[in-house]
Amino acid sequence: MYSFLPILILFIFFFLNIPICFALMGATLFFFGFLDTSMDLDLIMQHFIRSAESFPLLAIPFFIMAGSIMNYSGISKRLMGMAEVLTGHLTGGLAQVNILLSVLMGGISGSANADAAMQCKVLVPEMVNRGYSKGFSAAITAASSIVSPIIPPGIVLIIYALLSNVSVTKMFIAGYVPGALIAISLMITVAIISKKRKYVPVREKRASLQEVFKQFKESIWALILPFVIILGMRIGIFTPTEAGAIAVVITTLIGIFIYKELKLTKFPEILKETVYGTSTVMFIIIAANVFGAYLSWERIPFKLTNILLEFSTSPWSLLLLINLILLFVGMFIDGGAAMIILAPLLIPAALKLGIDPLHLGIVMVVNIMIGGVTPPFGSMMFLTCSLLNIKLEEFMKEITPFIVALLLVLFILTYIPDIVLFLPNLLS
């Protein structure tokens, strides 16, 4: 059983609130330094360095930078305007705008935390001014941010594709329908809650076609970017990494020459945000790859596959078990880190029972994102509560109906795989 000891040490480090990258490295070095000394520690450090030498990983900083540029270039503002004319007349108007804005943001930034932080600064103050409770505003902001990593080009989708050796483009395409289902379920939940609490729409009546067309003309440059990214990858003009670079160039050109709101003086701040966001993700990825060296050395995926298959004799029971594991782990570990740690462990068992890796990937992403809004360590939960100065108890009271709605969507996606696979199969 000593071969499983680093995993136990890893979770002890998590509970001691040690940063994830250091916890992963510490558990690995403990194993190779004290339990199995047959591998030279220099080789571990070489593995650490080699893990960063990956061309596909360049997509991550590019998309993080594109998301940051959006907030300084006026693109986010135009997307919010488009969301308002489309949903502002609905019951709970600004909360509905919040959800649709996350859908539109997901097509460019791909980061739940970036989306939640932007909406806390831009939209939530207006919601509070219009009579929405601060707890409700925080809850819908955190819940809707789940959509951003699922609608392409989500960073977690890229990570899973690299870990599972599936097409990044197919993974992106598979995210559209689940993302739409999540958005619809949240909008229905908002409508029910808003009707009970008498939250008024932001617009007295539905926007006219003329108003929609006027806003569409103003927002069109922001709206075409996701289509350019997906279409370019689909027909083979550029790779996902090159798509990230193109997203940076296009958002910059839109901000400087079309919306004329992006100033050169803002680039040091944009680069700072990009470096901070990238370094956080990359340190976790690199440390997880080193941890993967221990997993491979001890054949942990093979052992875990056998254990899972003892408890699960069918794909449906295995998917239920995987969901339970992910929901638990997602409460303690950030989404990207959880994916990096768990995907290599769970994929072999899923493949052995004939589960499509694309289907498994979407289920894992949705599941892990739900963990981001649940206690005790949900990242979007902490982000929104800290930015808006809200007590955790108030947040939990307001987020509960949204978690129920998200779990219902997760159940549907888990047991009706054609919902996930329909578009990738259609376009393959």
Short recap of the structure:
GO terms for molecular function: transmembrane transporter activity. By secondary structure, the protein is an all-alpha fold. Helix content is 77%, strand content 0%.
What does this structure look like?
It comes from Fusobacterium ulcerans 12-1B. GO terms for molecular function: transmembrane transporter activity. The chain is mainly alpha-helical and 428 residues long. It is built from 23 helices and no strands. Helix 4 runs antiparallel to helix 16 and helix 6 packs antiparallel against helix 7. The mean pLDDT is 84.
- Class by SSE composition: mainly alpha
Number of helices: 23
Portion in beta strands? under 5%
Largest sheet: none
Which consecutive residue ranges, at least 5 long each, have pLDDT under 50?
none
The count of DSSP E runs of length 2 or more, i.e. the number of strands, is 0
Order of helices and strands: HHHHHHHHHHHHHHHHHHHHHHH
Fraction of residues in H or I helices: over 70%
Question: Overall mean pLDDT score?
Answer: 84
Distance between the termini: 44 Å
What characteristic shape results from the CA principal axes? globular
Gyration radius (Cα, Å) is 22 Å
